[in-house]
Design goal:
The complex is a heterotrimer of chains A (about 55), B (about 260) and C (about 240). Chain A is built from two helices and no strands. Chain A has a domain at about 25-55. In chain A, about 90% of the residues lie in helices and about 0% in strands. Chain B has helices at about 1-10, 15-25, 35-55, 55-75, 80-115, 115-120, 125-155, 165-190, 195-220, 230-255. Chain B has ten helices and no strands. The radius of gyration of chain B is 20 Å and the shape is elongated. Chain C has a domain at about 60-230. In chain C, about 80% of the residues lie in helices and about 0% in strands. Chain C contains eight helices and no strands. Classes of the chains: A mainly alpha (about 55), B mainly alpha (about 260), C mainly alpha (about 240). The interface of A and C includes residues 13, 14, 24, 44 and 47 of A.
C-alpha cells in the first residue's frame, strides 16, 4: 500500500497531476450544471416578464 | 472604355469621397464584372493611400514604436554588440510584430466609423477584393516602412551590412503575412470597444508561424548563411494569406455590419 | 433511408429533449470507463523500465491532450455548419465546447509540466507538444474572449464561427512550424515511453481513459447544449412547458 502511494519516488508529481485532472473534471461537471440552471432561470424570468406585459 | 477612364481621371486627384462614389457606381457597369472588381479594388487602394497621406503624423507612429522597441532591448540587456547581434532577429521580429499589431487598429476603424465599410459591403462589388485592397494599402503604409527600417535597426544591433538586404526581404515578406492575418482579427473585432487586447489575443497565435520562420531567416542572414528555406516558407505563408485572408475578412466584415 | 431524424437535429425543442434523455447514457459509461482505466493504469499496469511509476501521469495527460484537440475540432466543425447552413443548434454546440476544451488544455499543460520535471529535470520545456498546447489554450481564450466581447448572440455566434474555422486551419500550420523550430535547436525528445510499442497492460488502460474522457465530453456537451439552446430561443412556446417542469 505504501509503495502505491509512493509511486516509485515520483509521488510528488504523479498525485498532483491526478489531482489537477480530477479538479478539472469536477469543475466541468459543476460548471455545466450551473450553466444549465442559469439558462433555465433566465428563460423562466423572460417568460414571466412577457406574461406581465400582456 | 472612355467613360470609365474619364471617371478614373476624375477620381484620382479629387476627394476620396469621389473615389468611393465611383466604386459604388462601378457596380452599375456590368459589362465586365471581373474588370470592375479589379477597378473597384484599385480605387479603394488609392483612396486609402490618399486618406493616409493626409494624416502623415499617424503613419510615423508604428515606425516610432519600432524604433523605441529596438532601443528597449539594449537598455534592458547590455550594450555589447556581440550579444545584441545574437538577439537581433528576436528584437527585429518582436518589434515588427508588435508594431504591426498596433497599426491594425487603423485598418478598418475610420471606414467603419463613417459608414464607408457599409457602402463597400452594399456596393455589389466583391468585398473580398476590396478587403485585399485595403490590406495591401495597409501593408504599403505600415509593413513596407517597417521592412525598410529593419536594416537600420539591425545595424544598430551590430549586424553586418552584408546581412541587411536579406533582412529587408524577409521582414517585407513577413509583414505581408502579418497584415493579412491581422485583417481577420481587425474585421472580427469591429465595433467592440477597447478591443486592443482582444485583437492581440486573436492575432498573435495565428502569427506565430510567421514569427518562427521570419526570425529563423533573419538569424541565418545575420550569420551569413543562406536563408532560402525559411524565406520560402515565409513566402508560402504570405501566399496562403493572400488567398484566404481577404475571404475571411470579408465574411467577418459582413457579420460585424449586420 | 428515412432522414427525418437527421433533419430534426436542427430543431431546438427536439434537441433539448434528446439531450436530456441521452445524457445519462454517456455519463455513466464515461464514469465506468474512467474508473476502470484508473484501476488499470495506477494498479495493474507494470512500471515503465525507464520512467518507473512516473509514467503513470500518461493516463491523465494523454486524455487531457486528446480532449483539448478533439474538442477544438468539434467546435470548429459545428461552428462551420452553423455558419454555412445557418443552424442555431450548431452554434449552440460550438459555444458549449469552448469552456470544456479550454479547461482540458489547461489540464494537459499542467500534467505535462508535472511529467516534465522528473523526466527532463525542469517543469517547463519548450518541446513541440507542450508549446502547441499552450498556443491552443490561447486560441480557446481568444474564441471565448471574442464571444464575450460581442453582445448580440447571433453576431457573436457568427463572428466566433469565422474565428474557429480560421483557427482550425491554422492549428496544423502552427504545429508544423513549432515542430520545425524545435528540431533546429535539438531540444530533448518529447515524452515517449522507452519501449517502441506499448504492451497491452499499459495500452488498455490508456484506451479506456481516452474512451472514458470522450464519453464524458459528450455528456458535458449535452448538458451545456440544453442551456445554450434555451438562450437562443427567445419566446418560443415550447420553452414554457420545459421550464415550468
Amino acid at each position: 500500500m505504501r509503495e502505491f502511494f509512493d509511486m516509485g519516488g515520483y509521488a510528488a508529481f504523479v498525485w498532483p497531476a491526478y489531482a489537477v485532472t480530477l479538479a478539472v473534471v469536477l469543475l466541468n461537471i459543476f460548471w455545466a450544471r450551473r450553466a444549465l440552471a442559469r439558462s433555465c432561470a433566465e428563460a423562466r424570468r423572460r417568460l414571466q416578464m412577457q406574461g406581465e406585459r400582456r | 472604355m472612355n467613360g470609365r477612364e474619364g471617371r478614373v481621371a476624375e477620381a484620382f486627384p479629387a476627394a476620396p469621397g469621389a473615389a468611393l462614389a465611383v466604386v459604388t457606381a462601378a457596380a452599375a457597369d456590368r459589362s465586365a464584372p471581373g474588370a470592375t472588381a479589379l477597378e473597384a479594388a484599385r480605387l479603394a487602394l488609392l483612396r486609402d493611400l490618399q486618406l493616409a497621406f493626409r494624416k502623415r503624423g499617424q503613419l510615423v507612429q508604428p515606425l516610432a514604436f519600432f524604433a523605441m522597441v529596438t532601443l528597449l532591448f539594449p537598455l534592458a540587456i547590455s550594450p555589447e554588440l556581440s550579444r545584441l547581434r545574437e538577439l537581433a532577429p528576436a528584437v527585429l521580429w518582436i518589434g515588427a510584430l508588435l508594431g504591426s499589431l498596433l497599426a491594425l487598429e487603423f485598418l478598418f476603424r475610420d471606414d467603419a466609423y463613417d459608414g464607408t465599410l457599409e457602402q463597400y459591403a452594399l456596393s455589389g462589388q466583391s468585398l473580398t477584393a476590396l478587403m485585399f485592397a485595403k490590406t495591401f494599402a495597409h501593408w504599403l503604409l505600415t509593413g513596407l516602412p517597417l521592412a525598410l527600417m529593419a536594416p537600420l535597426a539591425a545595424l544598430s544591433l551590430g549586424v553586418a551590412t552584408t546581412a541587411l538586404p536579406g533582412i529587408l526581404l524577409c521582414v517585407a515578406v513577413g509583414t505581408v503575412a502579418l497584415s493579412l492575418i491581422g485583417s481577420i482579427g481587425a474585421a472580427l473585432t469591429l465595433g467592440i470597444k477597447r478591443s486592443g487586447a482582444l485583437l492581440s489575443l486573436l492575432t498573435l497565435p495565428l502569427s506565430l508561424p510567421v514569427l518562427i520562420f521570419g526570425a529563423r531567416a533573419t538569424q541565418l542572414a545575420v550569420h551569413g548563411a543562406s536563408l532560402l528555406a525559411p524565406l520560402e516558407l515565409l513566402g508560402a505563408l504570405a501566399v496562403l494569406g493572400i488567398t484566404l485572408a481577404p475571404l475571411a475578412a470579408a465574411a467577418a466584415v459582413r457579420i460585424s455590419l449586420e | 433511408m428515412n432522414w427525418s431524424w437527421f433533419h430534426r437535429l436542427a430543431s431546438p425543442p427536439h434537441v433539448y429533449a434528446l439531450a436530456a434523455r441521452l445524457t445519462p447514457w454517456f455519463a455513466w459509461p464515461a464514469a465506468l470507463c474512467i474508473l476502470a482505466g484508473l484501476w488499470g493504469g495506477l494498479v495493474l499496469a507494470p512500471p515503465d523500465y525507464q520512467q518507473g511509476d512516473g509514467f503513470r501521469i500518461l493516463y491523465v495527460h494523454a486524455p487531457s491532450a486528446w480532449m483539448s484537440l478533439m474538442v477544438y475540432v468539434t467546435m470548429a466543425v459545428s461552428a462551420a455548419v452553423g455558419l454555412i447552413w445557418r443552424i442555431k443548434v450548431a452554434h449552440a454546440v460550438a459555444a458549449s465546447c469552448a469552456p470544456i476544451g479550454a479547461s482540458f488544455t489547461f489540464a494537459a499543460l499542467v500534467t505535462g509540466a508535472l511529467w516534465g520535471q522528473p523526466m527532463w529535470g525542469t517543469y517547463w520545456e519548450w518541446d513541440p507538444r507542450l508549446t502547441s498546447e499552450l498556443v491552443l489554450l490561447f486560441l480557446y481564450l481568444g474564441y471565448m474572449g471574442l464571444r464575450a466581447g460581442i453582445e448580440d448572440t447571433q453576431r457573436a455566434d457568427r463572428a466566433s464561427a469565422v474565428l474557429a474555422v480560421v483557427g482550425v486551419v491554422n492549428v496544423p500550420i502552427i504545429h508544423y512550424s513549432v515542430t520545425w523550430w524545435n528540431s533546429l535547436h535539438q531540444a530533448p525528445s518529447v515524452m515517449r515511453l522507452a519501449k517502441p510499442a506499448m504492451p497491452l497492460p499499459m495500452l488498455v488502460p490508456l484506451l479506456l481513459m481516452l474512451l472514458g474522457f470522450t464519453l464524458f465530453f459528450v455528456a458535458l456537451l449535452l448538458v451545456r447544449l440544453r442551456g445554450e439552446v434555451l438562450a437562443r430561443e427567445r419566446a418560443a412556446s415550447w420553452i414554457r412547458e420545459v421550464v415550468s417542469a
